[in-house]
Design brief:
The structure holds two protein chains of two kinds. Helix content of chain A is 6%, strand content 65%. Chain A is built from two helices and 16 strands. Chain A has a 16-stranded antiparallel beta barrel with strand order 1-2-3-4-5-6-7-8-9-10-11-12-13-14-15-16. The longest helix of chain A has 12 residues. The two termini of chain A are 17 Å apart. By secondary structure, chain B is an all-alpha fold. In chain B, helix 6 runs parallel beside helix 8. In chain B, 42% of the residues are buried. Classes of the chains: A mainly beta, B mainly alpha. At the A-B interface, strand 1, strand 2, strand 4, strand 5 and strand 6 of A face helix 7 and helix 8 of B.
């Protein structure tokens, strides 16, 4: 195995990273898909028994990647646990591969696909696999993008859903500044609250802007979605991943119809030779047809990284996830410190 | 007849003052020094010092040239002189100035083809010493401008490679901070890495062409 890895490293562009994180989180069980009303009931029980119960956070994340010519392949393996809380623990293995060609005045083609196997020992209902693929073709300014995803739940097939979107994009780079405009039509398929198959459609318009100057990369985007059809989803999809970030899957159901606006801001900036700061903010407002699709979301995070050497770094991140659904309001602050190794 | 022949003729008839010629040489040398220091990863303080020296001499040159250019050159030639100054400034800042580049390329033609043509002219030479001297003067002028264009291209490509790498690294940094990258992010990250590698190659090729142009300029100046 190591001989193969060494041979690959000689012949191609190879890198990888391992990160260990320790921290605290307040509502880890809210990152797990569940039947409607299930978590609220559990929350009420906990409040009656002990009140608010924060938990620890332990995570091990390993990534590897190899690229040669226009092709590349990689994989991420993750374990997230929230001791002593059982709910929310997740094991995730996600191999990915892709190919790119063209550029510099010639048409450009980019293909990528990823499959993520997710297992939750304490919540077997959410065990599943998520497959996604993207293809884009175009020139320096105009192009066409096709995206598709399917999330299959092994023991709850009616929770499974899929989406496919197709649309043009226009982008312009002006040195440090860049702008992008994307439009897409999307078809969604899933099951409603009575487990009947439903399909829906979406029209999406996304405006993005970015600034890369020296060691600073700043990007901002706003996306509007008009969804029609579908039905109240069979399961509650949490708006945040087990890692705490906004989960784009929650936009992949038409959910009976809604109008949604989401805006985000991301900053990564190096401070000197060894330090970097990361900041992000996401806000989403949804105006639904059905109460089950009502879900406003906010997320802010601030992280710092300090390189101890060429391959070792320490990092820290503090974040707050918040969402509102009807009268339910949840705020989930969390923080972690980490040690990372890179190659 | 190109504008450089006219400029060469004007200079031959009524050469620019020695101090202006010395300033031109000094400014080009300082711009190249700033670019070389930046390419070598010199500390920010050293770059600022070099930039300051460059700017001070560039402004002095502009002030010295302005009345002379106004007197001697037509509007098109003045536009080219202004483009030359702007391109030298862009080289020093490792920035792109496509408009200034376009003005010079309009006058010179495609840079690689013009460099090849100049090399053939120098190799062919002339038995008439006066013609040989005139050719050497014009070749040296054009080769110096071509070196500036290639230095600009190399700097712009290096800056584009740096931006692409910064963006790709930012996607990786966000992932390590807990954001699960989408498959579109992964495709974008790989595209940016390929772009960075392609721009690195383009920068190396442009830098090699700039060296070739400088060697031709020195050879022409030696021959003239």
């Amino acid at each position: 195995m190591w001989v193969l890895w060494a041979a690959a490293a000689q012949a191609a562009d190879v890198d990888g990273a391992v990160d260990v994180r320790f921290g605290v989180r307040t509502e880890p069980q809210l990152t797990v898909e569940h039947e409607h009303g299930e978590v609220e009931a559990r929350e009420r029980e906990e409040e009656e028994e002990d009140g608010w119960e924060p938990s620890g956070l332990v995570a091990l994340v390993a990534t590897g990647r190899v690229a040669s010519g226009g092709g590349w392949a990689g994989a991420t393996g993750e374990v997230w646990a929230y001791p002593p809380e059982e709910h929310g623990t997740v094991l995730r293995l996600a191999p990915a591969a892709g190919y790119g060609a063209g550029g510099s005045g010639t048409p450009r083609l980019d293909l990528a696909a990823r499959y993520a196997l997710e297992l939750a020992p304490a919540d077997p209902a959410v065990d599943g696999g998520r497959a996604e693929a993207t293809a884009s073709l175009g020139g320096a300014h105009l192009g066409l993008a096709l995206d598709a995803l399917h999330h299959a739940y092994f023991s709850r097939p009616t929770w499974s859903f899929g989406a496919a979107s197709l649309g043009p994009r226009w982008q312009v780079d002006r040195g440090a500044l860049r702008f992008e405009l994307r439009a897409a039509g999307q078809l969604n398929a899933g099951h409603d609250a009575r487990d009947a198959p439903v399909t829906g459609g979406q029209g999406r318009l996304r405006l993005g802007a970015g600034l890369t100057h020296g060691p600073v990369d700043l990007r901002a985007e706003a996306e509007g979605i008009v969804a029609v059809g579908g039905g109240a989803p069979a399961a509650f999809l949490p708006p945040f991943t087990s890692l705490g970030a906004y989960d784009v899957d929650i936009d992949a159901l038409s959910a009976g119809g809604f109008t949604q606006v989401r805006a985000g801001l991301d900053l990564v900036a190096a401070l000197g030779q060894r330090d970097a700061v990361l900041a992000s903010a996401v806000g989403r407002l949804r105006f639904p047809t059905l109460p089950a699709a009502d879900l406003d979301v906010a997320h802010v995070a601030l992280g710092l990284r300090h390189d101890l050497g060429d391959h070792v770094s320490v990092s820290a991140l503090g974040a707050v996830d918040a969402w509102r659904q009807g009268p339910t309001r949840v705020v989930d602050p969390y923080a972690w410190v980490g040690l990372g190794l890179t190659r | 007849m190109s504008w450089l022949w006219l400029l060469a003729a004007a200079r031959a008839a009524d050469p620019l003052p020695r101090e202006v010629l010395a300033l031109e040489h000094e400014v080009a040398t300082l711009a190249a020094q700033v670019e070389a220091a930046r390419a070598a990863g010199a500390p920010r303080g050293q770059l600022a010092k070099l930039m300051s020296a460059y700017r001070e001499r560039a402004e002095a040159l502009q002030a010295a040239e302005a009345p002379l250019l106004a007197d001697r050159l037509d509007a098109a030639a003045a536009r080219r002189a202004e483009a030359t100054r702007r391109l030298a400034d862009a080289v020093a800042r490792e920035a792109a100035d496509p408009d200034a580049r376009a003005v010079l390329v309009e006058a010179l033609g495609p840079p690689e083809a013009r460099l090849d043509a100049l090399q053939r002219i120098v190799a062919a030479g002339s038995p008439d010493p006066e013609v040989a001297a005139a050719i050497a003067l014009d070749v040296a002028d054009q080769a110096a401008l071509l070196a500036l264009v290639f230095d600009h291209d190399a700097g712009a490509a290096r800056a584009a490679a740096h931006r692409a790498r910064t963006r790709a690294d930012a996607i990786a940094a966000r992932a390590r901070a807990g954001e699960t990258p989408t498959v579109q992010d992964l495709a974008e990250q790989e595209r940016l890495r390929r772009d960075a590698a392609a721009q690195d190659d383009a920068a190396q090729q442009a830098a090699a062409q700039a060296e070739r142009a400088r060697a031709l300029r020195d050879r022409a100046q030696g021959g003239g």
